């Protein structure tokens, strides 16, 4: 009885309030010297030690005739395997370790291992693979793909046009356009005491494959397979200090990019024009480094929180220029590029009362290009470009300010509003300063039983300094042209969301958004952009073990553009584009079948994107319809064979089709271009996988 009475006494003291605590009646002042705590035990507080978790392996068969399907199925080969794991180990002395793996062995596999002692240190290692597949049927007459020089066959016969190259059809060979990234990471964190801690993280990313580029000599071009052999090393290290109401951190970030290929050379497939070259060269992405140091912190007291960050950095690039095929003198052997960056963020939040909270923030980011300006002799590509050009040291400064307040009108009804400001400053630009001012408000209602509703609206206006054509950027453009990201703009937006639960086992959610960008002062350029989007979802727990969910999303973006021919002072042609995206899906699962050992599930998604462009210049011309359609099916059955062993069978299907005029092109379809041929997709792929999972 003594044990029970003391618990009740402590509970009463804990709820007596601040007044009693101030008079010496708080828990800290309780006389607990006579309490025998020897036999006190908390059965729920027991920490399990040893290993726990699960590990699984899977093997499957992939049936596909288009490598593009690997983007959805994460399987490139016919036979695929994977390893999944979620294993934890806890020791009695606070040591713990964890191993996690997801689809390891497939194209999107990842794994991470962490170990350490709680409150002392942690060591981690991780791996991730990301693959992107474009096509395996691209065609080219060049050999040496993946190297720094592309050669034509020895029997090649040059011509003035691609459809006159007699050796072209017989010289074409397919190759794969794909990119693979592999990331490896190491990390270490150390907690010295309650005041300070330190950390260091390292990541290496290797990126390899082949991507699309082009090579041009005068006005004759060819699409070329560019080799990709990149490596990027990133380092993050810092020290953190913290107290009862504050913390601060000093952090260094470094990035080091290396490209094993500095240039790409290629034989010219065309008959030399006006003494033109028989081979071309182009420089590839140069090596570069970036370093930043930041100081961040936060302080909180009396319902107020203030946080901020100061950041300084430098980006450099000093790789030697590629001079192959360039017969002019260079002012320097490399650009010796140097860009300094400075940033500052500060945010404050103050709770005025239980019903009112205000917040404000300010962001500053400055990019100062310190690279010297030189005059370069340009090889003429067309009859517009000149012979002398200069590298332009672009600088930019962005400042953002925000003020907001949220007020609880009554329980379940909250009104939020704010003001946002942004200023962009750019040198060597058609417009050097732009200012954006926006106001917004949001009303959220949850006071009604089974209902949650919100309505938000905003209005923004962008203007700025005088718009003047710059000799650095627009010497060949119509002086009335207004670039959409610099032009005056009025933006209106409204969005709403409603969530309703008419039954305990049924939830319905609906949302919609409308936005209008009006470029009313633009004569030549984008004049209007309109967006309409809405979505709906239903989740219905039909039975305790049977669940159904449905969803639908739609988005439409319409743009209107005005153009002019021959530097006309009025618009002479008009273009309208309409982009639509629709996604619909359903999912169902039935659990605890066959004596609570079997779970069945089915997920289906259909998505379609569609784009049309129409141009009016006296008569209306249709540029054709672009679309991409995809259907995804995943049917699965999971069976608990024993207490520790579970079997799972997955069937996945992806059906994909697209139609893009830019990809539906014959190799010699344009007289002064050698293309990769038709890169469109139309396929149905299947993947069947059996997995075994073992519980430790």
UniProtKB/TrEMBL annotation:
Signal peptide segment: 1-21
Keywords (A to Z) from UniProt: Signal
Domain of life where this protein originates: Bacteria
InterPro entries in UniProt: Decahaem-assoc_OM_MtrB/PioB, Porin_dom_sf
Keyword Signal: yes
Protein name: MtrB/PioB family decaheme-associated outer membrane protein
């Amino acid at each position: 009885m003594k044990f029970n009475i003391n618990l009740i006494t402590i509970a009463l003291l804990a709820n007596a309030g601040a007044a009693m605590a101030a008079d010496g009646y708080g828990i800290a002042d309780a006389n607990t010297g006579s309490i025998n705590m020897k036999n006190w035990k908390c059965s729920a507080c027991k920490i399990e030690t040893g290993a726990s978790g699960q590990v699984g392996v899977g093997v499957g068969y992939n049936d596909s005739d288009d490598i593009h399907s690997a983007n959805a199925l994460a399987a490139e080969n016919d036979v695929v395997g994977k390893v999944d794991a979620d294993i934890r180990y806890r020791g009695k002395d606070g040591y713990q370790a964890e191993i996690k793996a997801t689809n390891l062995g497939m194209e999107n596999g990842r794994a991470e291992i962490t170990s350490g002692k709680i409150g002392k240190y942690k060591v981690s290692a991780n791996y991730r693979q990301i693959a992107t597949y474009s096509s395996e049927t691209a065609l080219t007459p060049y050999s040496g793909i993946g190297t720094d020089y592309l050669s034509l066959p020895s029997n090649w016969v040059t011509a003035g046009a691609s459809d006159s190259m007699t050796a072209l059809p017989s010289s074409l060979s397919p190759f794969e356009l794909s990119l693979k990234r592999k990331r490896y990471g190491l990390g270490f964190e150390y907690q010295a005491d309650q005041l300070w801690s330190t950390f260091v993280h390292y990541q290496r990313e290797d990126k390899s494959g082949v991507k699309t580029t082009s090579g041009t000599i005068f006005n004759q071009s060819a699409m070329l397979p560019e080799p990709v052999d990149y490596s990027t090393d990133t380092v993050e290290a810092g020290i953190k200090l913290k107290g009862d109401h504050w913390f601060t951190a000093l952090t260094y970030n470094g990035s080091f990019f290396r490209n094993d290929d500095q240039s790409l050379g290629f034989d010219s497939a065309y008959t030399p024009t006006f003494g033109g070259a028989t081979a071309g060269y182009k420089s590839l992405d140069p090596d570069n480094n970036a370093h930043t140091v930041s100081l961040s912190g936060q302080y909180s007291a009396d319902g107020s929180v203030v946080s901020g960050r100061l950041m300084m950095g430098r980006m450099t690039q000093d790789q030697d220029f590629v001079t192959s095929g360039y017969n002019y003198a260079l002012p320097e052997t490399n650009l010796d590029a140097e860009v300094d960056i400075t940033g500052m963020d500060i945010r404050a939040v103050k709770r005025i009362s239980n019903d009112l909270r205000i917040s404000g923030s300010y962001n500053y980011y400055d990019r100062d290009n310190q690279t010297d300006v030189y005059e370069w002799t340009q090889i003429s590509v067309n009859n517009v470009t000149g012979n002398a050009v200069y590298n332009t040291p672009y600088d930019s400064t962005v400042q953002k300010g925000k003020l907001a307040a949220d007020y609880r009108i009554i329980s379940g009804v909250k009104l939020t509003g704010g003001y946002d400001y942004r200023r962009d400053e750019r040198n060597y630009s058609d417009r050097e300063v732009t200012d954006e001012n926006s106001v917004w408000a949001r009303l959220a209602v949850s006071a009604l039983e089974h209902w949650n509703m919100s309505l938000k609206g905003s209005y923004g206006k962008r203007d700025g300094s005088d718009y003047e054509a710059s000799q650095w950027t627009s010497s060949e453009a119509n002086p009335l042209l207004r670039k959409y990201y610099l032009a005056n703009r009025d933006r209106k937006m409204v969005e709403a969301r409603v969530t309703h639960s008419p039954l305990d086992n049924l939830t319905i959610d609906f949302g919609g958004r409308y936005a209008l960008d009006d470029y009313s002062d633009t004569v030549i350029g984008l004049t209007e952009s309109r967006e309409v989007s809405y979505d709906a979802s239903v989740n219905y727990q039909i039975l305790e073990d049977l669940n159904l969910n449905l969803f639908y999303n739609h988005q439409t973006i319409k743009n209107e553009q005005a153009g002019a021919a021959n530097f006309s002072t009025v618009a002479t042609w008009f273009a309208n584009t309409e982009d639509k995206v629709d996604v619909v899906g359903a999912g169902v699962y039935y659990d605890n079948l066959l004596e609570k050992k079997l779970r069945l599930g089915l997920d289906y998604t259909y998505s379609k994107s569609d784009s049309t462009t129409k141009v009016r210049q006296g008569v209306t011309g249709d540029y054709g319809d672009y679309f991409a359609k995809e259907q995804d099916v995943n049917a699965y059955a999971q069976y608990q064979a024993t207490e520790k062993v579970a079997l799972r069978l997955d069937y996945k299907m992806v059906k994909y089709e697209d139609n893009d005029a830019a990809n539906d092109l014959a190799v010699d379809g344009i007289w002064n271009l050698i293309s990769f041929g038709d890169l469109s997709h139309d396929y149905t792929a299947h993947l069947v996988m059996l997995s075994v999972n073992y519980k430790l």
